[in-house]
Structure formats: C-alpha cells, structure tokens
Amino acid sequence: MSELHDLTAIEQLAALRTGEIGPVDLAGHYLDRIARLDAGLGAFVEVTADAATARARSFAADAPTGALWGLPFADKDLVPRAGVPTRYGSRLHRDVVPDVTGDQAAVLDEAGGVSLGKTNTPEFGLTGYTESQVAPPARDPWNPANGAGGSSGGAATAVAAGLLPLAPASDGGGSIRIPAATVGLVGIKPSRGRVPFASGLDSPGGLPVAGPIARTVADAALLLDVQVAGRPHPYATAAPGAGPFLTSVGAGAASARVGVTTVSPWDDAEDIRLDPDAERAVAVAAALLADAGSAVEAFDWQPRGYAEMFTTIWRTSAARMNLSDAELELVEPITAWLVREGRRLTGAEVLEALAAATAFERETITAFAPFDAVLTPALALPAQPVGWFDADDAARNFSQQVQYAPYSSFVNVCGLPAVVVPVTLDGSGHPVSVQLIGRPGGEAAIVALAAELEGRVGPLPRPDVWRA
User: Fold this and answer.
1) Is 30 helix (H, G, I), strand (E, B) or coil?
2) pLDDT at residue 165 above 60?
3) What pLDDT is attached to residue 466?
4) Do residues 357 and 309 make contact, with C-beta atoms less than 8 angstroms apart?
5) Pairing verdict, β 72-76 and 114-119
6) H or E segment to which residue 310 belongs
C-alpha cells in the first residue's frame, strides 16, 4: 500500500489542491516520519513541529494559493528563520535565535510552503560533507555508516529518506550536487544571477547560489521556478534564458549536442581516481542520450592552473568571516585553517586569483560552447564512511574533498548551471549519478536532458528506510 511520501512533490501538490489530502495531514505524515526515523539519519538539527502544524492549520479553510501551497519543506541551517535557532553548523552559534527571516526562507513561505524545521549543514557550509560539532552527522539513507555529502547534506538525507518531498539548498562549490549525487537524488545548481535573492553576484568569485534538491527532475524544476520568481533584488542581474523550467521537462533531447569528458580541473594537482562505477554511469548516460537522438561526442578539454586559483578564492571567502582569534580556537580545524590561510593572503594574491578565475571562466565557456550540455561524472568516488574526512589535518581534509568531488567547484567558478541525476546502480544497489553542465543561462536544456535520462532509466529503487 502506498504512503503519502511515495507521491512526488507535484503529485502531493495536486492532491492538496483537489482536497484529496489536507495540509495538516501531509505535514503530520512527514513530522511522524521525522520523529521515528531521523535519530539514525541526522537530517534535521531542529524540528518545528508546533509551528508547522499551526501553519498547516491556517491553510485548512483557505482556497489553495501559491506554487507550494501546503507542501512541507525545511530550511538549510545557514538560512535565518525568526524565532528558530540558526546555528550555521557551529558551536559559536549554538544559542543564536534570529528575529528576522532570511529571503531564502521567506520566498518559500510566500509560495505557501510549510517549514518543518532546519536541515543539517557543516560549519558555515564550508565542506563537502556534513559532520559538525553541534549535531550528529548527516548519513546516507542507503547505508547510514556513510556520510551524505555536503554542505546540504541534511537536506539530501531528508529527501532521500522520505522525510521531505523536496528541499531548498545552496551551492558554493558543489553543496547541492555533492549530497544529491551521494544519496541518489536530483540537484540543480542554477546559473550565476539566476536566483535573485541568492545570485552569487555579491561574493568573491560569484560562487554561491541557491537551488533545489528533489527526487525527480520535475520536482526540482518546480522548486527552482519558485526560487527564481521570488523576491527580486535590484543588484541581481537575471541570467539569460527563459523559464519556467518545469515546462522543459518532457522537451526531449533529439536536437541536443552533448560533449562528454571525465577530465577534471584538479587532475594536474591532486591524485584524482575515478571509480569504475562513476565511469560506467557516464558511459550509460551518453548511450541513453545518443539513443534519444542527441549528438554525443567525447571532446578534449585541457583546463590549466585551476587548483591554486580556486584554493585562493575559497580561502578568501572564509577570511571574510568575522571571527576573533579566540573564536578561531573554538571552530573546527578545517574552518580555522581556511580563515587563517585566507587572512595571510595579500591583496595582490587575491586580485590575481580573481583575474585567473575570470580567465578560466572564459576559457571553459569557450571550450564548452559547441555543446548544449557537457556530461561529466557527478562524483569521483562513492559515498565514504562517516569520519573518513580528516578531522585534524585540515590540508589533508581539503585534499580529500577534492578527490571525492573534483567535478563540482569549477562550475561555480564559471557561473554555469548544472544538474546531477542518478542513472545506474552499483553492485550494492546504490544509485550512481552523472552531471550535466549547461551554457550560461542554459537551465532549460539541461533540465530537458536530465528528464530524458530519468525517463529512459526508469524508476530506481528507494533505500530501506523509505518503507519504514
């Protein structure tokens, strides 16, 4: 017998609008699953059951309005919500309760969503795994001995385990795509400037943007449309191209030209070893797109000088955090290392790195220009055990993150859109994903291609906890 969480987010919305299910019942269903299951998963750091139930009840007598009317979600714990602890994954913020709700939460509220609480994130969202000093680690629902990736690890865990229908997330170097690929979900990183309230235009290198994590391409496109439409800001320049992106689902792949590469820009600086299952997933995806009518071809990409440039920009971003010397003694080693290394940089070094990033962006966009999308692995390695990333040696920790996910951060540097989607299963039955990278403003094309892959692959299994 099917359960409410077996329905896609779009199907749940349809049932809400027809009255087949009510907002209180749907919120209660997810809150019950969170209460029963999350202790072993680490998806949530705060559950706001009373507030969620009250909000759902307030909708009960109203006609459905808003793109997410009555649909549960949760805020990533980097996003302030008035009256709810916002810890940023750090014990420095253990007792912080903001009195203002941030735009990323307010936009989903205004669309009619019902927040169930806060999802787990690493300290200040700085790492590609979700293990902090203020919460249990976010775990892969397929094998809870493994981590869920990061920094939106809690959001990915919640959706993969059926604790949420979809989740908002953010991505400054892979923080949507890494956890989504780790646990077998769809994650979309939009173009720089696409989402007005989290455009990336106000940060060094233009790296971080907001986007969705969901179980299906259509569900992810639905949430992206909500994020794009919400709260425009005067400093955000809309990326080229048109939405809504939900209409791109089903557009097909017959006229697309797709380039394929397993090269990463870290190859000349780190020991990048591509797992055979990840390599096979790329081959399967390429064959499926070719069968659908896309012109698929391998191409020679030779990125240069990326590692030093990105490491400098990442340290620069960390150095902006207003942390005292005393506070640096309390944060995690990787945070302290990034901040201190960033503060040692000279102005000339930072400017050189930003100039190098601009050059890299132009060179990469030029190299990718013949293609509507470029297909790469999503991750180089499968999900790793909790504790695999070195908690003491920060330099080794950073290197491990690169070895795990070398195909993510360069997309942020270039401001390009990308989507990860599962296409195969490994020997244990765990989903393995690929990444499709679009042209500037090219979300519509990669959403269409991802949906084509999803349709040709067919339904993939769910982890055991899904049926609990």
Assistant:
1) helix
2) yes
3) 98
4) yes
5) parallel
6) helix 306-319
Q: Are 110 and 63 in contact (CB under 8 A)?
A: no
Catalytic residue among 90, 175, 199, 248: 175
Which residues partner with 210 through β-bridges? Answer: 170
What is the three-class DSSP state of 127?
coil
Phi and psi based region of residue 399 (left: phi greater than 0; alpha: psi -120 to 50; beta: remaining): alpha
Strands 186-189 and 209-214: antiparallel
Average pLDDT over residues 365-372: 98
Are the beta carbons of 382 and 426 closer than 8 angstroms?
yes
CA atoms within 13 A on the CB side of 85: 17
Q: What does the pLDDT read at residue 253? A: 84
175 noted as active-site residue? yes
Condensed to tens digits (0 to 9), the pLDDT of residues 135-160 reads 999 999 999 999 999 999 999 999 99
Distance (Å, rounded) from C-alpha 144 to C-alpha 134?
A: 19
Q: Which of 115, 132, 151, 433 is catalytic?
A: 151
How many C-beta atoms lie closer than 10 Å to residue 255's C-beta? 12
171, two tokens: 């991505």
Catalytic residue among 76, 152, 294, 433: 76
Q: What is the pTM for the complete model shown? A: 0.97
Active site residue 118: no
